[in-house]
């Protein structure tokens, strides 16, 4: 049940109606049962993996609260890493996917959302440990935190200290939340079906047949794929945040106009914020503290390990390791060359310096996105090497590209004006006539130049 399907909108509407018809105390339990039903519809018997993760992690949290022994924290982290390794890394490392068709080991699939709810579990335990408080949420509250259906499959990665208090405050119906949530869902649907889905056929054809293309076609496909990922993933986050808002819950913002970043470090402050802030708080800062006596070498070590984890988090493929290493190197260079770069940009007019820095970061990210798309390092090298060649420009379906570009111009234009303000707040501040004109345009565009289908989001694979 994709979040861009009519089935999801029906499911969301039915849960919403029952939710506000129930007494406040019963509402979290409805959300919990609905979340498990939602996951079962998408993943079938893999629901047991989610339930196992909830049960074991909760017991470990209770054990820590009772005994206060650091061993409980270690076991929790090891358990979640083992769960991730079994489903996500061992099949690739030991070549289970190359076994004969139908073999039991080959049938091991990665449960959707595994990386997201595993990181939530580890974050909750570490927050408990570092706070020193022996108070653990109830089993129902913790279970909903781990399996809340709007963000279960692809985030944003929730934090227990911000999510669980909302469960205990079972909110009343709020008209402002309904309007804000609906705006956010509509905006997410537009980005997914009008932009990402219309770019997908073009990037698929070029990358699946890269031997037939060279030069500007490969470069254009790499840029298009980066924009496709952004529109696709931010669309999921918008729909998730909007859906949660309908129930009175507020999830973390996951994107803050990342295409405006003027450095790789700034890009990661704006891109997939729930993941980048998670690794910053639970990995980078502790590593930086432990290696503070090493000076710049300590900062470099902490940075490279952090970005290596970001790369590996995306999957068990050497292309993803290289992706993390490249971003780690870029971020390290930026941290060690602040004075040099400041002098360079000061020698240029401010506007030109901003445009150049933004363009350099954009092209670097687009080039590195080829690693996310490639099945192997050899394939990535082959694709990149063909950029230097020359062949006629391939555009595929010009109609689909016109649709996608039209949508991009709208999104990029609004992003430019709104800055870091969430899109639902920005739209809410506009004159009534302009708001309704935008609503009508978005609603008309969905069936005319897009389609509500069951097409999955790119980040489901992570």
What does the model show?
Helices cover 72% and strands 0% of the residues. It is built from 20 helices and no strands. The chain has 2 domains: 6-173, no CATH class; 177-251 and 337-449, no CATH class. With 462 residues, it is mainly α.
Concise synopsis of the structure shown:
The protein is an all-alpha fold and 462 residues long.
Could you list some keywords that capture this structure?
single chain, 462 residues, mainly alpha, 2 domains, globular
Question: How many independent structural domains?
Answer: 2
**Anisotropy-based shape:** globular
**Rg of Cα set:** 23 Å
Strand/helix succession: HHHHHHHHHHHHHHHHHHHH
End-to-end CA span: 17 Å
Strand content of the residues, in percent?
A: under 5%
Reconstruct the topology from this structure:
Layout: H1 6-21, H2 27-43, H3 47-67, H4 70-93, H5 114-131, H6 139-147, H7 149-152, H8 160-168, H9 175-208, H10 216-246, H11 264-270, H12 273-290, H13 296-313, H14 318-336, H15 338-346, H16 350-373, H17 377-385, H18 398-418, H19 423-428, H20 432-449
Helix pairs in contact: 1-2, 2-6, 3-4, 3-5, 3-6, 4-5, 6-8, 9-10, 9-18, 9-20, 10-16, 12-13, 13-14, 14-16, 16-17
């Amino acid at each position: 049940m994709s979040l861009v399907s009519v089935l999801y909108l029906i499911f969301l509407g039915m849960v919403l109606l029952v939710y506000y018809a129930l007494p406040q105390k019963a509402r979290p339990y409805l959300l919990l049962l609905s979340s498990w039903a939602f996951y079962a519809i998408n993943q079938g018997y893999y629901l047991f993996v989610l339930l196992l993760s909830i049960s074991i992690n909760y017991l470990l949290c209770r054990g820590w609260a009772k005994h206060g022994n650091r061993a409980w924290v270690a076991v929790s982290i090891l358990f979640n890493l083992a769960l991730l390794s079994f489903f996500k890394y061992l099949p690739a490392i030991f070549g289970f996917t190359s076994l004969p068709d139908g073999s039991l080991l080959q049938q091991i699939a990665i449960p959707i959302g595994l990386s997201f709810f595993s990181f939530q579990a580890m974050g909750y335990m570490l927050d408990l440990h570092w706070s020193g408080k022996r108070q653990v949420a109830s089993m129902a509250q913790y279970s909903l935190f781990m399996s809340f259906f709007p963000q279960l499959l692809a985030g944003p990665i929730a934090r227990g200290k911000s999510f669980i208090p909302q469960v205990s405050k079972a909110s009343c119906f709020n008209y402002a939340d309904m309007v804000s949530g609906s705006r956010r869902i509509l905006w997410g649907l537009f980005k997914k079906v009008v932009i990402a889905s219309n770019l997908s056929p073009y990037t698929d054809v070029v990358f699946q047949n890269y031997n037939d293309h060279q030069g500007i076609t490969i470069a254009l496909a790499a840029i298009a794929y980066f924009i496709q990922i952004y529109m696709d993933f931010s669309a999921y986050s918008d729909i998730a945040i909007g859906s949660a808002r309908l129930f009175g819950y507020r999830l973390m913002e996951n994107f803050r106009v990342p295409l405006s970043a003027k450095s790789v470090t700034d890009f990661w402050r704006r891109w997939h914020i729930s993941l980048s802030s998670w690794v910053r708080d639970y990995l980078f800062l502790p590593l930086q503290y432990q290696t503070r006596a090493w000076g710049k070498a300590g900062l470099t070590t902490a940075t490279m390990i952090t970005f290596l984890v970001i790369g590996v988090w995306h999957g068990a493929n050497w292309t993803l390791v290289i992706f993390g290493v490249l971003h780690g190197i870029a971020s390290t260079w930026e941290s060690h060359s602040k004075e040099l770069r400041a002098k360079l940009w000061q020698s240029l007019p401010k506007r030109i310096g901003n445009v150049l820095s933004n363009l350099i970061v954009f092209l670097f990210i687009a080039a590195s996105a080829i690693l996310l798309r490639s099945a192997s390092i050899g394939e990535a090298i082959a694709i990149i090497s063909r950029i230097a060649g020359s062949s006629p420009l391939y555009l595929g379906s010009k109609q689909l590209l016109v649709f996608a570009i039209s949508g991009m111009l709208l999104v990029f234009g609004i992003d430019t004006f709104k800055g870091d303000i969430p899109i639902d707040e920005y739209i809410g501040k506009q004159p009534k006539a302009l708001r309704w004109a935008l609503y009508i345009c978005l609603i008309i565009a969905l069936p005319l130049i897009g389609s509500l289908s069951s097409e999955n989001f790119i980040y489901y694979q992570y």
